[in-house]
Amino acid sequence: MDFRIIALPPFTAVTSGPDPEFDFSPEGVLGRFNAYFSAISPDNCPPRDFLFFNKEAGGLEWWYAINDSMPDGGYNRVGFDGGMYLTYTYRDHDEEANNKLYQEALEYIDKGKVLELDERPGHYSMGHIITPPKLIKARGYAVMECYVPVKLREN
Description:
Elements: E1 4-8, E2 11-15, H1 29-38, E3 49-54, E4 59-66, E5 76-80, E6 83-91, H2 95-111, E7 115-117, E8 126-129, H3 133-139, E9 143-152
Antiparallel strand pairs: 1-6, 2-4, 2-5, 3-4, 3-8, 6-9, 7-9, 8-9
C-alpha cells in the first residue's frame, strides 16, 4: 500500500465529548453533534470533523474545527496542536479492511527509518468521511480517510 503523509495545522475545535455508548442515533451524543455541525454551511475547507477513540475517557469522540465566525453550538472548545499524519482510505463500516490497513500502516511506520508513531492524549488515530453527502446517498456508502499520527523518528 502506498500511504500518503500530510500535515494538519493547529486549530480550535468543538467536541462532542467522549461517548462510551458510540451512539449515533438522533438522540445520542454523537448523533446530536453530527446534526449540529452538519447544519453549518460548508466553507470548502475540509476536513473539519474528526472522529477518534479517546483512550483516557473510554469513549468515541468527535471534533469539529471552527473559526471565529462559526457557532459553537454550546459545545466545549478544545485546542488541537496539529501534526503529521499517515493516511489511508477504506469503505466506511468495513472494519476488516480498516484493521488490515491500520496494521499495514503500523508496519510501514515501524520498518521505516524516518517516521515513528505519535499517539498521545489528544493526538490519536482518527477518521473523516471524505465522500460528499449527495454521493453517499446516490452510491449508498461513504469512504473514510484514516489519519495515523506520526512524527520524525528521533535518533
